[in-house]
Write a structure and sequence with these properties.
Length: 478
């Protein structure tokens, strides 16, 4: 594909960290259902604050120890902090933070074994932010806490590794970028395929024009399941959890073990299980391979609960179509395909290839000359001509350790990390746009890349305006 094609669809000329925007106002067309006219949007303030790198006079020697804390000690958060402690990268984990006392025990035991000193268990992340000794935090809370925790960390002078999906709304992502730039904090997003070397070689191959012009691309996360879900009754919160802190920015509701343990099934806490917790990885890697286009012009998302008519908010299958003007992107996420499987350990850490037709997390890139299969988490890429003739390929291993090393390196050097907050915001916005389309009645939404706003549907605009409980508000000025 010719490179110029991608730059034409980026937001206000955005590519990587070079952003510019004109400050003209536009008025959208009226909403065909409500009669409401679109608000006059403004250029998001973060655009004027984007920096490619931060002050080098704050750079540190590679010999300097990095003091870390984990916020959110569930299964994945515990895994990431244990991996980090074991990398021999001169780090010290001082805190393990979770509002639930039943979580984090494994992380504390393993980290103590690795570093010879026991991390301090705390419930409230503010204790970490108040400790000037802490250099950086890993945020692996439920998704509804990612934005506010990241902004508070930046304000406290901490660098951040924040898990995907990095935000709970488009506006929240904008504020996260703004905070990172204002306080010059390194923010690495948990979209770890950004540190997969083969993702860069896939981008270079597409740039070369060997695929021809890319016309359509597809990314999927189609897995087995789901299991039947029966929402439990509300009860009093156990003494082992601070339920008010767990809810944080979300609406105040009585304790419910289903909300606590299966939070990804509720819109209050996540962007859906299939999209926000799954296909976000493929969407982000696909964007990287396509030279990081900005925002699409429109989105249409459909789907539903097809397997079980239960109490889950989120669909068990979604299909979203994004129009970028000169190519179309589709995302699929679902839980109904026992005959498909994610890339296994042998492939992730070895030299073998996925069986693409039965790979649950594959990316397909269709050009006018050839097609590319691209895998996540060490899947590599292969290019095929007609008759399934293999013409090019590249392979590497699961990139989590490299992603963490890149974060630690950037904490010291002050260079922007591979999974920087700006590209994380772009990729997360695809998930939010798709969900807004679905939740507003599966309508096609017209989107302004300049103003990052929906132009033609007041219902979707209202759903996209985040609401926060008192005491947990997103600050107007970060």
């Amino acid at each position: 594909m010719k490179r110029r094609k991608f730059f034409k669809v980026t937001s206000a000329g955005a590519a990587g960290f070079s952003l510019a925007a004109s400050c003209r106002n536009i008025t959208g067309k009226g909403d065909s259902r409500t009669g409401n006219t679109a608000e006059k949007p403004e250029v998001p303030p973060y655009r004027a604050a984007v920096k490619s790198n931060f002050a080098t006079d704050r750079a540190r020697s590679a010999a300097d120890k990095v003091i870390l804390a984990l916020i959110g000690a569930g299964g994945w958060g515990s895994h990431v902090i244990i991996e980090t402690a074991g990398l021999n990268e001169n780090v010290f984990v001082k805190y393990i933070c979770d509002v639930d006392d039943t979580r984090g025990g494994r992380a504390i035991e393993e980290v103590e074994r690795i570093q010879g000193a026991r991390p301090v268990r705390v419930r409230d992340m503010r204790r970490i932010f108040d400790d000037r000794e802490v250099d950086a935090v890993i945020i692996a809370t439920p998704e509804h806490w990612h934005g506010l925790a990241t902004i508070r960390a930046c304000q406290a002078g901490k660098d951040v590794y924040v898990e995907k999906c990095i935000s709970h709304s488009i506006i929240e992502g904008q504020k996260m970028v703004e905070a990172a730039m204002k306080y010059e904090r390194i923010v690495q997003c948990g979209t770890l395929n950004r540190s997969a070397r083969y993702g860069l070689t896939a981008r270079d191959y597409i740039r070369s024009g060997e695929l021809g012009d890319v016309v359509t691309v597809n990314a999927m996360e189609l897995t087995d399941g789901p299991v039947p879900f029966v929402e439990k009754e509300d009860t009093g919160a156990p003494s082992t959890i601070d339920w008010d802190l767990w809810l944080g920015p979300a609406p105040k509701v009585p304790y419910n073990v289903s909300r606590n343990k299966s939070w990804a099934y509720y819109w209050d806490y996540a962007g859906g299980y299939a999209f926000g917790q799954g296909v976000i990885h493929q969407a982000d890697m696909l964007r990287m391979a396509l030279d990081d286009p900005g925002f699409p012009k429109s989105v249409y998302c459909t789907g539903g609960r097809y397997l079980f008519n239960d109490e889950r908010d989120v669909p068990d299958y979604q299909l979203a179509v994004f129009d970028y003007g000169n190519f179309v992107m589709t995302l699929q996420g679902g839980e109904f395909t026992p005959y498909l499987a994610k890339t296994n350990e042998k492939i992730r850490f070895g030299n073998t290839w996925p069986e693409w037709q039965q790979n649950a997390t594959r990316i397909e890139i269709y050009g006018t000359r050839r097609m590319m299969y691209l895998g996540v988490m060490g899947g590599g890429w292969q290019v095929f001509d007609k008759d399934m003739q293999l013409v090019a390929s590249d392979k590497d291993i699961y990139p989590l350790k490299d992603h963490i090393r890149n974060f630690l390196s950037c904490v010291r050097s002050r260079k922007q990390p591979n999974g920087n907050i700006l590209q994380g915001h772009y990729s997360a916005s695809l998930i939010h746009m798709a969900n807004l389309s679905y939740r507003s009645g599966c309508r096609q939404l017209l989107f302004s890349p300049d103003y990052e706003t929906i132009l033609n549907d007041e219902t979707a605009r209202e759903l996209g305006r985040p609401k926060y409980r008192k005491g947990f508000e997103l600050p107007d000025i970060v």
